[in-house]
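Suppose you are handed only these lines of text.
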Amino acid sequence: MTDLTALSEEVRALARQRDAIVLAHNYQRQEVQDVADFVGDSLGLSREAAATSAAVIVFAGVHFMAETAKILSPDKHVLLPEPRAGCPMADMITAEQARSFKGEHPGLPLVTYVNSSAEVKAESDVCCTSANAVEVVRSLGVTRVLFAPDRNLGAWVASQLPDVEIITWDGFCPTHERVTAEQVRSAVQAHPGAMVVAHPECRPEVVALADAVLSTSGMIRYVASSAAEEFIVITESGLLHGLAKAAPGKKFFGLTPPMVCPNMKLTTLEKVRDCLRDGTGEVTVPASTRARALAAVERMVALG
Ligand code: SF4
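From them, the structure of the protein bound to iron/sulfur cluster can be written out as follows.
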């Protein structure tokens, strides 16, 4: 038995003993994805967190995801295996900045990407993920809207809803922002005939080169049902594992250099084991913040 197999079995046994569910984001390390009860994107993981009857949720992801689970399931123990796993994009707007943003545009609803702190969600009218951002903005039925923190996702939504003016905060994901159109053209040259699938956190000039613009779980569904055999994948490299599982036999090409989110890779199988064994890394959200954030998150979960 390899070390990884033994460790995975230890994690599964501890999860049973502790009445715990292990949720893993699509960008997690391969072995962490493989040990999880559920692997998905932010929207899917939020839904699982809201629906589970387990007493403990181990969230293999980054801090805002565990916070969102806690907002939805306040009676459960939500554990983040690596407390330093944050999201630089979420840190690009504070609650005070969100209030100022709204103050500068009185009366406009604030749509906040789930990649944000609980405090910022508490200032928001509704949250969204990359999977449902267009639908969430459309559902508001307004012609002007504030969107935070991701300027690239905001630009993508604007391109899909030309009748809505989207006023975006100036945040971004460093891992997706780094991708250039030149890199994508090189990949297309190296793999002519491959379909290009891109995440909407990429810059508009990158998104413009894609055949399909999708969330991570959207990409998994897309490659499994597509007639194409080869794909250039423009999102964090952890997704390549899920894609290969969803469509065995098809070929997936990442970019050069690979797109890696260092925060997502902080969580290891050992850390998942340790937090299950020791009950460490508990994430809390103050009751007053939670109450205000819940409505925005629940509206999101109910949509799409
Ligand atoms: S990939 Fe980007 S948006 Fe996702 S956790 Fe990492 S920094 Fe944040």
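What can we learn from it? The domain at 175-253 is CATH 3.40.50.10800 (Rossmann fold). The first strand starts at residue 20 and ends at 25.
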